[in-house]
C-alpha cells in the first residue's frame, strides 16, 4: 500500500468538501447537529438498542456534542467564513480518518482492469 502524504490527503478532502458544499447554506445547521446529538444520546432508546445489537456497546455521543458546540462557536462569523472554517475542520477529520488504520488497508487501488478477467467462455471448456 503506498504511503499517503498527510498534507496531500488534507488538500484532497478540502477540495472535495468545497465542491460538495459550494455555498454556506450547504453546511449543516446547528439545529441539525443538535438533532444528531439527541438521536444518539440516551434519551432515544431505539438508537441505544441498535448500537448494542450491532456493535456490542452504547453509542459514543460526545463527538456529536462537540460538533454542535463547534457550530455554536461559529455563529458570530460571516456565512462564507463559517463555511470555510467548517470545511477546514471536516477536511482535517476526514484526512485523519483516511490516514488511520482501516479494514481497507489490505487493498491497493487498481489503476488498470485485470487482463482477460473473467476468462471468456469457449466451446473447448465444455468438451
Output the keywords.
single chain, 127 residues, 0% strand, Pants/Emi1-like
Describe this structure in words.
It holds the Pfam family PANTS-like. The protein is mainly α and 127 residues long. The protein has one domain (6-99). It has 5 helices and no strands. It is extended and about 75 Å long. The model has no long low-confidence stretch (mean pLDDT 86).
Mean pLDDT, to the nearest integer, reads 86
Low-confidence stretches: none
Helix content: 55-70%
The main pleated sheet reads as: none
Compute the number of helices.
5
Number of domains: 1
Q: Quick one: overall form? A: extended
The H-and-E topology, N to C, reads as HHHHH
Record field, number of beta strands:
0
| First-to-last CA distance | 42 Å
Radius of gyration from CA coordinates: 22 Å
User: Structural class from helices and strands?
Assistant: mainly alpha
Into which percentage range does the β-strand content fall?
under 5%
InterPro entries: Pants/Emi1-like (IPR021475)
Secondary-structure map with pairings?
Elements lengths: L5 H15 L9 H11 L4 H11 L6 H12 L5 H21 L28
Structure summarized in a few sentences:
The chain is mostly helical and 127 residues long. It has helices at residues 6-20, 30-40, 45-55, 62-73, 79-99. Helix 1 (6-20) crosses helix 5 (79-99) and helix 2 packs antiparallel against helix 4.
Amino acid at each position: 500500500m503506498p504511503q499517503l502524504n498527510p498534507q496531500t490527503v488534507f488538500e484532497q478532502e478540502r477540495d472535495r468538501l468545497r465542491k460538495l458544499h459550494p455555498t454556506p447554506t450547504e453546511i449543516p445547521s446547528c439545529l441539525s447537529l443538535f438533532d444528531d446529538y439527541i438521536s444518539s444520546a440516551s434519551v432515544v432508546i431505539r438508537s441505544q438498542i441498535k448500537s448494542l445489537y450491532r456493535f456490542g456497546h452504547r453509542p459514543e455521543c460526545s463527538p456529536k456534542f462537540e460538533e454542535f458546540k463547534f457550530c455554536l462557536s461559529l455563529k458570530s462569523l460571516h456565512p462564507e467564513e463559517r463555511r470555510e472554517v467548517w470545511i477546514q475542520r471536516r477536511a482535517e477529520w476526514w484526512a485523519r480518518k483516511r490516514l488511520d488504520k482501516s479494514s481497507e488497508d489490505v487493498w491497493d487501488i487498481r489503476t488498470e482492469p485485470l487482463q482477460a478477467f473473467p476468462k471468456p467462455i469457449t466451446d473447448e471448456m465444455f468438451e
